[in-house]
Amino acid sequence: MVLKRLLSAARKPKPARHRIPSGQRVYAVGDIHGRLDLLDDLLSRIDRDDAQRQAAETTLIFLGDLVDRGPDSFCVVERLMQLHATRRQTHFLMGNHEEVFLLAASGDVQATRQFVRIGGRETILSYGIGEKAYRDADFEELTELFARHVPPEHIAFLSSFENSLEIGDYLFVHAGIRPGVPIEGQSPSDLRWIRDPFLSDERDHGRCVVHGHSIRQEIDLRPNRIGIDTGAYASNRLSAVGLQDDGCWFLSTNDSP
After folding, report:
1. For residue 40, what is the enclosing H or E element?
2. Same domain for 210 and 242?
3. What whole-number distance in Å separates Cα of residue 230 and Cα of residue 84?
4. Is residue 179, in this structure, part of any structural domain at all?
5. For residue range 138-168, what is the model confidence (pLDDT) as tens digits?
6. 71, 81, 78, 79: which is closest to 126 by C-alpha?
7. Three-class DSSP category at 148
8. What SS3 class is residue 149?
9. Please, what's the b/e burial string for 145-178 (b: 16 or more CB within 10 A of its CB; e: otherwise)?
10. 204 with 171, same domain?
11. How far apart (Å, rounded) are the C-alpha atoms in residues 145 and 110?
């Protein structure tokens, strides 16, 4: 009986690895948080990596949280607007920091209070508001200042971000998903803000979820998800995952060139 069970187990097919459709290559970039220097470095690494591989249709996905905490949010937004205008297969996902940014820029004073708590000071200063003006303003005044300084094209760009994107066996989101809820039933709030129970859930979600939002020192590679937020604003390590066919590899700004 033991031998029969072993033979039966040996014949049982192994779970299929996650795949990207044939002829496509995907790079997904983690949370940038205002680090233009790291963004430029990582984009150069992606371009070199892409050029060294066989010809494919290449898609770039930015998983959200372009802004806050780091010093150059304005310039990061400008850089990625230019990239979007010149590179057809580029997608941007809405992070929780973009969500709060847009609310604050629309005149929502409570959102400005939250914005400042989660790293918005550096973003506000990057939009040309001086340190003294920032210190002297109450939240109502600061909200008005910020709304006046954010260009309409930045609002339009950030407002166009997607909540999620599916390619092959992968689902790309900013934060994660609510376990047990179908992908089409996921709430934007969960997609942008969730940590647990998503991070601790080991179930197959029907897609391998690629996400940022939750900082780890190393890439968080699990059977059902890949977390690529390596805390760029503080660690100097901005990371990306590359995907093609059933292959998966990683690029980071502190790797050897």
Report:
1. helix 36-52
2. yes
3. 24
4. yes
5. 999 999 999 999 999 999 999 999 999 999 9
6. 71
7. helix
8. helix
9. bbeeebeeebeebbeebeebbebbbbbbbbbbbb
10. yes
11. 15
